[in-house]
Structures are given as structure tokens and as C-alpha cells.
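call fold(seq) -> C-alpha cells
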Amino acid sequence: MFDALKGVDLILHAGDVGGRGVLDELGMIAPVRAVSGNTDVPGDPHLEPAIDLMVDGVAVHVTHGHELGSPTPARLLERYTADVIVYGHTHKALTERAGSRLVINPGAAGPRRFNLKPSLARLTIASGKADVRIVWLN
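ret:
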């Protein structure tokens, strides 16, 4: 994971963090902002309910997604207006474009769950455009 995140400016965590130690480790790579997932301790002061930020003219919204029950790209696009929506909850890596908008689930970089291969996503925003790639972890 350290190699996959080398050189990033910011780490956005989409919830189900797994404890403060995970945030501390990620913080050795780059600044970290994380949202609270349904398995995180309620009220953890290190976790935000949602993250909204503007990067080079691109609006980014980060949510865990559990507030929608079973999040899907269509439901997320309907609920949130950001150009890029990052979510977790399903732990299944996904990228989907809808016109100029982008929905990303980075998957899960922690211990393997639900028979899914560990992954993360690298989001690049430059000149007002967002691009993403899923990085599969060993």
C-alpha cells in the first residue's frame, strides 16, 4: 500500500477505517481525511460524517454510502451533486462515469473480506478534469 500511495498529496478514506492506527500509518504517507463508516466507532473525532472539497475546480464528495442502504452509482449521483463521488461500504472496487461525473469505490485495502481482492484508487485531478485508476494490492 505504501508504494501504491507514494507521491500522493492527500489520502481520502471512505470509511470502515479499522481504528486510529490505520490513520496514523496512512498519515506517514500524506495528510489523511476520513469519513465514518458503519463499522467505525460512532462519534470518533478523527472521522468526518462526509467530506466536501474543491480541487482545481472539481467538486469532490466523500461518503461511506451506508446512508443509502445499498449504494449504487445511480443512487449516489442522484443524491449528491459533486463532480466526483467517492464511497465505500460495499468494499468492492468500482469506477463509473456518467457524463462528466465520476463515481469511485476504491474497494478495501485491509484484510480480505467478502472474497474480494484488496485494492485502492488513485484519483488524479488536473486542469479541471478527474481521472482514476484502481490499484490492486497483493
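The domain at 2-136 is CATH 3.60.21.10 (Purple Acid Phosphatase; chain A, domain 2).
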